[in-house]
Design a protein that fits this description.
The protein has helices at 52-58, 72-89, 105-120, 126-133, 188-197, 204-213, 219-226, and strands at 8-18, 25-32, 43-44, 47-49, 64-65, 94-96, 135-138, 143-149, 158-166, 180-186, 237-241, 244-248, 259-262. The strands form three sheets. Strands 1, 2, 3, 4, 8, 9 and 10 form a seven-stranded mixed beta sheet that branches. Strands 5-7-6 form a three-stranded mixed beta sheet. The chain is built from seven helices and 13 strands. It is of the alpha+beta class. Helix 1 packs across helix 2 and helix 5 (188-197) packs antiparallel against helix 6 (204-213). The protein folds into two domains: 8-231, Nucleoside Triphosphate Pyrophosphohydrolase; 236-266, no CATH class.
């Protein structure tokens, strides 16, 4: 029997804004570099693995707000979510200590220009960025949305929490040019249409979450619907079907079904 790979803890953020052109939500997404060994070339939300430095921040409660009542594991997922968002998009969900407003776009841009490259090169830690700029992470801006675990039998597996967050005003975001090669603010409808036409490569969890997100026309509605909702963990069970694959997920997870067919490469 093949050894089951232990999934790595990871976080993903769906950064949302209201479209100015239509009654639609827009979400920030990136195209993964084709040489990345997981979801290469795919259109995805910002995110990545929880790392050691995220756990070190837990011991410094003055560096975050909104973590009341959360255990260390839950805190590490949220801290990683904000760090990965900053590393991959440049968007910063944080406040200056002692203030209630999120860091404005100009200040966030200055912090990004000074620290993002070094952070991605692991020359500094996110803890350094926070302490050096008097910042407090806005964990309360994150709304838990979904929990997916990569199926057993896969060579690389992740235990991923998805969060919703309203993008701070005027923080537009941009891909890093390394792990991702392009970025776009896109409506769920447009992203899904692109998946059907071949414009975009969409992983299965991304597709299901875009469909669910697209049911809401405003950011406030999506956030309100998710607050307090019970989240059912999804670990798809995969079987072969007519040269393709069939995935079964819990019906109660809220994805309008439990059995889905995906292509041989999907």
């Amino acid at each position: 029997m093949a050894e089951v790979v232990t999934p790595r803890a990871a976080s993903t953020v769906l950064l949302l804004r209201d479209s100015k052109a239509a009654r639609e939500i827009e979400v920030f997404m990136m195209v993964r570099h084709y040489e990345i060994d997981f979801n290469s070339g795919a259109l995805v939300f910002p995110g990545g693995s929880v790392d050691k430095s995220d756990k070190e921040i837990i011991a410094r409660p003055e560096l975050y707000s909104g973590g009341e009542g959360l255990d260390a594991a839950a805190l590490s997922f949220r801290i990683a979510a904000i760090r990965e968002t900053f590393e991959e998009s440049g968007i910063l969900l944080a406040r200056l200590k002692g203030t209630k407003a999120l860091v404005d776009a100009q200040h966030a841009s200055e912090i990004e220009a000074s620290h993002r490259a070094d952070l991605n090169d692991r020359k500094i830690t996110f803890l350094d960025v926070l302490t050096g700029n008097g910042l407090s992470l806005a964990l309360d801006e994150l709304v838990p949305y979904a929990h997916w675990i990569t199926p057993e039998g896969m060579p690389k597996r992740f235990d991923t929490w998805f969060f919703l967050a309203a993008a701070p005003p005027d923080q537009l975001g941009a891909h890093d040019g390394r792990e991702s090669t392009d970025s776009i603010w896109v409506s769920p409808r447009e992203a899904l249409d692109g998946g059907k036409t071949g414009r975009f490569k969409l992983p299965f969890p991304t597709t299901r979450n875009l469909i669910r997100l697209g049911k809401h026309g405003k950011v406030g509605d999506a956030l309100a619907d998710s607050r307090g909702r019970d989240i059912v963990t999804v670990m798809p069970v995969m079987t072969r079907l007519n040269g393709g694959r069939q995935l079964r997920i819990p019906k109660e997870a809220g994805y309008d079904g439990e059995l889905f067919e995906v292509g041989a490469g999907g």
